[in-house]
Amino acid sequence: MVPGLAVRALTVDDASAVAVLVERIEAADALPTRTTPSAVAEELAYSWNDLAVDSLGVFDGATLRACALVDRLPGSDVRAVRIVLHGGVDPELRRQGVGGLLLDWQLARARQRLAASDSTAVGRIMAGTNDGEGSAGHRALLARAGMSPARYFTIMRRDLTDPIPTVEPRGDVRIVPYADRYDEATRVAHNDAFRDHWGSEEQTAEAWAQGRDGFAPEWSFLAVAGDGEDERVVGYELASRSEEEWPVVGYTFGYTELLGVVRDFRGRRIAPALLARAMERFRADGMEYAALDVDSASPSGADDLYASLGYRRRHSDVVYTIEV
Predict the structure, then answer these.
(1) pTM assigned to the model
(2) Domains of the chain
């Protein structure tokens, strides 16, 4: 480690310092997105991690210069036990071995957490990065540690000045605004819809309630079938609002975080109907673009659907993995 730096575990009280560091890193790397301070605070507070043993901060006096977190994603652990490595190094401290030391520690801690699991599923250690020039050093560091690209996620946007098609779902399905009373039914629908998606595990109620930073219920819609006791959520579009990013990217946008249709209701134009309704609401609220991301190898062919609705590629993120 560089002389003069101190290392200790992070605490939830370090959220502001971590947010400042993340902002410096994202700006230096010219990343096309930004992480909000509230998202950082939420992540540090996740109940399934123990910051005392699952995090490290590198400090220069009172200033945080690098950080690392080993995040054990909750879920059913049927297909894989998933661990995500988060962190970064202050641009002024790079190429001094700090990043490599933190990554070595993360991989060792990730293996410890996997060894403690009762699941017989494969252990999958993951780290996300961007495919742009600014993240080349990060990608090289991950590759030297034995991780390799496993998945590319394409971030797409759609100009809302273009005409928005009118799309209605087929059959006895109605599109309704999101409401809290449907939340558990939406979780159940999500677990069904994403059963065949890479990296996805069944979401527990606790996990489903997390990661809601920026959630915009006024931009979110559900596809509902049946009535009374037979009423069921069969599709969903859950959106977020990230005003902190608008000045950085240079335009306003609404973001579709999750889009899914249960398996036995696919092929009824539910997904395009949900997206069209969301785009209408984005535009009514003054947004210039609709945005979302998609697994480039999605088994549902979602990228073709988005392209047909006018979404165009903006950039890609890459997930590096190593399986244990």
Answers:
(1) 0.87
(2) 6-146 (3.40.630.30), 156-316 (3.40.630.30)
